[in-house]
Design goal:
This protein has 392 residues and is α/β, with parallel strands linked by helices. It folds into three domains: 319 residues, Metallo-beta-lactamase, Chain A (4-Layer Sandwich); 26 residues; 32 residues. The strands form four sheets. A seven-stranded mixed beta sheet has the order 8-7-6-3-2-1-17. Helix 5 packs parallel to helix 6.
Length: 392
């Protein structure tokens, strides 16, 4: 039997482009055209002071998967990509929601995998020049795509299987506890190493510092066993979870990525206090890049006061899922302080209402009269039993 290897390889490439990670074959021409002739939308009001003194915990969505985390005195970047055109092919729909020059400090950079929309070498070069004492953390397999940097480069083992318990390696880096956890996504950086040879090199992360725990899923598909296990092992305050790309976003997964519905299932499994959806809105993936978040909003309203599995819940997804614009920051301790003040105000109002009810209540007068009568009877009885008392 004769094989036309050229045709086989062309077919493999087309399939890889179509079903694979970060760009679909039908969108390449549009992405290239946009990259040459267009510009991304501007962020209206970029935050110029993203790291604030006194803030205990905050998250700023830069765009796509890139997120800035502040936990007390630590500053952490997740999969930072700041350029307008990613890998000379994909134009961002909206520019990065943060300027590198606005960062006064940086302690850790966490890379989930080497795909170009998650690991930007131009961005890392800029960060290396500005913050040479920062720590660059990445999963095993990514090192072959990284040049040497001044930053402290930390390679970590992954735990992407049930056999490994879905947990890889734990290290304390600059006082922050970092654990690699399950992610089901191709490693590599290009087409063949990612979608033909399936090179390893992808991970999620658990970040723990001063009582706060953040889960970053990286790129992954949904896995109920893995995420239920992580929910049992960690008390997660914030889960940063991809919701695209997807065309049928009401499915659990689309290709090698999780959809909006899968992300809501993950949230239920890991039992996080909050979820920040990411990995949408930036680039064209065969449909409107905002389809994942539009579907998420629809599902949030559909499953009001019940989980996606149909279980009744006292809390709504609206209270848990934080949908931010590019460049928007959510300060968790401020929200908690506001909630505490609201509770204190409600308590004061209730106390005032209780006091008012007591003073205005007609039964309170009757009760007072009865107490006076009882005291008079008691005095009379004492006088009868002790006649001398009346003379005195």
């Amino acid at each position: 039997m004769n094989f036309d290897f050229a045709k086989i390889w062309r077919t493999v490439i087309l399939l890889a482009l179509f079903i694979g990670g970060c760009s679909m074959a039908s969108d390449i021409s549009k992405n290239v055209s946009d990259a040459v002739f267009s510009r991304p939308e501007k962020v209206k009001q970029k935050i110029t002071d993203p790291i604030k003194p006194g803030v205990r915990f905050s998250a700023l969505w830069i765009g796509h998967a890139s997120t800035l985390i502040q936990i007390e005195d630590k500053v952490i970047l997740l999969d930072p990509v700041f350029e307008d055109v990613i890998a000379s092919l994909m134009l961002r729909k909206v520019e990065a929601g943060l300027d590198i020059n606005a960062l006064p400090d940086l302690d850790l950079v966490l890379i989930s995998h080497a795909h170009m929309d998650h690991m930007s070498l131009p961005t890392l070069e800029q960060l290396d020049k500005k913050f040479p004492n920062a720590n660059l953390v990445f999963p095993a397999g990514v090192e072959q795509y990284l040049p040497p940097y001044k930053m402290n480069m930390v390679r970590m083992k992954t735990g992407n299987s049930e056999k490994l318990g879905y947990i890889g390696e734990t290290r304390v880096i600059d006082g922050v506890k970092i654990t690699t956890v399950f992610a089901n996504h191709p490693g590599g950086r290009y087409i063949f190493d990612s979608y033909v040879w399936f090179e390893p090199g992808a991970t999620g992360y658990i970040i723990e510092y001063k009582g706060h725990t953040v889960f970053y899923a990286g790129d992954t598909v949904y896995d109920d066993k893995a995420y239920k296990k992580l929910g049992q092992e960690f008390d997660i305050e914030l889960a940063i979870v991809p919701i695209g790309p997807c065309i049928d976003c009401e499915a659990l997964d689309f290709g090698f990525h999780m959809g909006s519905f899968g992300a809501m299932n993950l949230l239920d499994d890991i039992q996080a206090d909050y979820m920040l959806p990411v990995h949408y809105g930036s680039s064209v993936y065969g449909s409107d890049p905002d389809i994942p978040v539009k579907t998420l909003v629809y599902l949030i309203n559909k499953y009001y006061l019940k989980t996606v599995s149909g279980i009744q819940s006292m809390s709504s997804y609206k209270d848990k899922i934080l949908i931010l614009d590019e460049g928007e920051q959510y300060i968790f301790d401020k929200e908690k302080e506001d909630e505490k003040k609201k509770e204190e105000n409600l308590e004061k109002i209730e106390e005032e209402l209780d006091l008012s009810d007591t003073l205005d209540s007609p039964t309170s007068t009757d009760s007072l009269d009865k107490n006076i009568e009882d005291e008079e009877e008691k005095i009379k009885e004492e006088n009868i039993l002790n006649p001398e008392a009346e003379k005195k």
